[in-house]
Amino acid sequence: MVNSPHEAMHRIFQEYPGLFTGVSKVLGLPFVQPTSVTVLPTDLTEIQPVERRVDTLLRFDGAEPMLLAVEAQSEKDPNKPASWAYYLSFVRAKYKIPVLLLVVCQDRATAEWAAQPVSLGPPQWPALTFRPLVAGPHNMPVITDPHEARADLALATLSAVTHAKNPDVGGILKALSTALQDVPEAVADPIIEFTAQGLSGNRRATQLWRNLMAVDLSFYKSWLSEEIRDEGRAQRGAEDILLVLEARGLDVSDEIRERITACDDPDLLRRWLTRAVTAPSAEEIFTDAGEDA
């Protein structure tokens, strides 16, 4: 099932293809730096009505051309090895250059499962064996130094995403948010949003990131930053309404209080605030132009 962490774990390689160089260094693999990278179509469908789609497919050109297929994997799936073998075989046959599969995971058990060599042949003659390269919490660095995060923002983002379930993820997120404070908005926005997507499966990490952006990155205009600011404005608007009603000595029931605080429409909150100044009762701030109490 495709979800936000799934998309972030592979799409970050589309946005920052050079991230693979950083990942390969972390994993101790001597890949040659490509001279150019091309994002290729991910549709691996054949003429037959069987659709196969790799998550991300990149072509690295240079001294050693190669293809990189990136798959985001959130849990063990016994059917995946056969699909991965198909992807590798198909793109190798189509593009005629070496191909590597990189699997990105957020939990150690899935990462260790994905890293196992897989043989598709019988034990007497394993005709086809492939070894995925895996990036996950078991081998991705825990980047808690803002200077280190600033040196490679994409790798720092992948560090946050792959360690989303780590109890100490707050240190990674703080380093990343600090590193983003003095970079251009055009650079920071995609990093902010990839991080938010990648953390969305973990409520605690998501809230930590939202809190950091509300404080450290409040000047950015990404959708998530705007959403946080809108939530803050709505909260202040609701508090103003309740303050006016209570100052006038009007009775505010739990039901009315809940309705006001649950509203996230700034325009509607402004109308309620205007009515709160003169309404004879708290219930009547809701009555206007078809709104019922």
What can be said about this structure in brief?
The chain contains twelve helices and seven strands. The chain has 293 residues and is α/β, with parallel strands linked by helices. The chain has three domains: 1-140; 141-221, no CATH class; 223-286, no CATH class.
Give a written overview of the molecule.
With 293 residues, the protein is an alpha/beta fold. It folds into 3 domains: 1-140; 141-221, no CATH class; 223-286, no CATH class. The chain contains 12 helices and 7 strands. It has helices spanning 4-15, 19-26, 80-95, 108-114, 146-151, 153-162, 169-179, 185-199, 203-216, 223-247, 254-262, 266-276, and strands at 36-39, 56-61, 66-73, 99-105, 118-119, 129-130, 133-135. A 5-stranded mixed β-sheet has the order 1-2-3-4-7. Helix 10 runs antiparallel to helix 11 (254-262). The longest helix is centred in the C-terminal third of the chain and has 25 residues, at 223-247. It is elongated and about 85 Å long. It starts with a helix and ends in a 17-residue tail after the last helix. 33% of the residues are buried. This is Transposase (putative) YhgA-like domain-containing protein.
